[in-house]
Amino acid sequence: MADLTYLDSRSHSDLRLDLANAANRHFVQVVAEEMPVAANEYPIFFTKNPQTGSFYAGVVMGLEAGTNLYAANGELPGYRPADLVRQGFFLSDGQIAIDPESPAFIPDGKPIFDERGEATPVLQAVQRAMHMLEKGLPETDAILARFVEHRLLEPIDISLDFDDGSRLRLDGLYSTSLDALHSLPDAVALELFRNGDLQIAYIQAASINHIRRLAKIRNDRLLAATS
Fold it and tell me: Matching InterPro entries, A to Z (predicted)?
């Protein structure tokens, strides 16, 4: 990443953002606030940060690295997670900054400032996404810390077979253990309920059925390529 530059309407009046930036993202981080909406379309799993070993949540958009099965020409037809919306933008000392060399900025993208130097709806969406992440990342970390404390996360290995004879295995993913959840003492379950954690647990566990949709999309594309 290049040096960050603080965003201002005069210096960046011609800056344009690529909204079709999802083509190569097969796993996108999400925060708890997004999960009720994201779970309508995507499977949600937990995985570990390879540097820190800490858990974080994300949506699976592809079954292979670098391939997004939901995106058409890089653009998502449905919900765009905040982490995709804010691509190229960062918070630095409480101010919005940009990476001028980010591939999220392209000459034929959508303008972020209008002719008066005011934020366009595109930039307003970025600002909302960054606010959501700033607030949601520590909240989600706290939820996952409680899940770990009560041993509610379990590894889940997914193997998928396709009509061309190929097989894909998804490793390193974790899901909420409903068995462990239902075995919790009443006092602990009540505490998790009051924190809103139970809602997240059930939403995540139900969302994994979308893996079947991803497998069907990939299988249909394989068949189309051979017909």
Answer: SapC (IPR010836)
Could you tell me the maximum CA-CA distance found in the chain, to the nearest angstrom? 60
Q: Are 83 and 133 in contact (CB under 8 A)?
A: yes
Which residue matches tokens 């392209």? 106
pLDDT at 17: 95
User: Token pair for residue 5?
Assistant: 């530059």
Query: CA nearest 28: which of 83, 68, 71, 102?
Result: 83
Q: Is the Cβ–Cβ distance between 24 and 58 less than 8 Å?
A: no
Q: What are phi and psi of 165, to 5 degrees?
A: 90, -5
Specify whether the CB–CB gap between 63 and 170 falls below 8 A: yes
**Domain locations in the chain as residue ranges:** 5-226
The pair of structure tokens assigned to 161 is 């077979």
Question: pLDDT, tens digit, for every residue of 85-112?
Answer: 999 999 988 889 999 889 999 999 999 9
DSSP string of 115-142, one letter each residue: TTSPBPHHHHHHHHHHHHHHHHHHHHHH
* Burial of residue 165 (number of CB atoms within 10 Å: 0-12, 13-18, 19+): exposed
Residue with tokens 């409480």: 94
Helix, strand or coil, per DSSP, at residue 25: coil
Q: Would you call 213 helix, strand, or coil by DSSP?
A: helix
